[in-house]
Amino acid sequence: MAESLAAILRWYADMGVDIALDDVPHDRFAESRASGCEKMRSLSAAPPETIEASHRVMREPATALPPKAIEAARDQAAAAQNLGDLCERLSRFEGCGLKATATRLVFGDGNPSADIMFIGEAPGADEDREGVPFVGRAGQLLDKMLVSIGLDREKVYIANVVPWRPPGNRTPTPLETAACLPFTRRQIELVNPKILVCLGAASAQTLLGGKEGIMRMRGRWFAYSAGNTEIRALAMLHPAYLLRQPAQKKLAWQDLRMLGKEINRLQLFAKGIGEREGT
Questions:
Q1: How far is CA 196 from the centre of its chain?
Q2: How far from the centroid of its chain's Cα atoms is residue 267's Cα?
Q3: Disulfide-capable partner of 198 in 4, 22, 25, 203 (CB 3.0 to 4.6 Å)?
Q4: CATH fold for the domain made of 67-269
Q5: Would you state the pLDDT for residue 25?
Q6: For 17-140, where are the E strands, in sequence order?
Q7: Section 179-192 average pLDDT
Q8: Comparing C-alpha atoms, which of 229, 249, 250 is closest to residue 239?
Q9: For the chain, give me the number of helices (H) and strands (E)?
Q10: What is the pTM (predicted TM-score) of this model?
């Protein structure tokens, strides 16, 4: 019996259900139907012009952040002088709704002056609890991938496009990504890596501007613009995807070999990864 209950709890955790919101269960479907009926009743009793206005709102969902919100995010990000300052400003930022549902901000991990920076999509349940990116099963696989080409977390810097966990580990919406993007771009500028590795489609498409799927983007070098600097960027499969599709690890190994060759070409090992000239 105990084993069965433990298995159920593990299943809930894997599905993203890791916190109790109330002491008693609620029929959310019934509540949804009731709220829908109330909305319809209110629309029926409203004047025609009010009904038309309400219909326009429902037909035209928001697809972009308000200009003031974008400007505020850009101003806050641009004003940050170092990673600590950026982290503090991001913790006070109220422009992304994920902050209200996440446990904590997941900012970054590793060497803040590293020559190689990895960026994933968003934190998961383990990352949300610990406040550190890539510490769950996907993170453990990433650590093994790093070791396979002579890297570890002391030689790289790791972050996500979105620093707060979406409920149930869902994909962040375009609005959520757009709200956080100025901070992510500033984070890259402050780390100033020689190589940027985008893990997964969301990261690659957001930062590299591609519309193709990750299978078409992976294994290719791109140019990422960071201010007046161009950074070599590589798209790779996300470790979480590799856990679901272990047969694709052969593609990840090909990409890791590409990364290793570029590291050697740039002679990053020769001077010590993370050790900059003049520092």
A1: 15
A2: 30
A3: 203
A4: Uracil-DNA Glycosylase, subunit E (3.40.470)
A5: 55
A6: 109-110, 116-120
A7: 97
A8: 249
A9: 14, 6
A10: 0.74
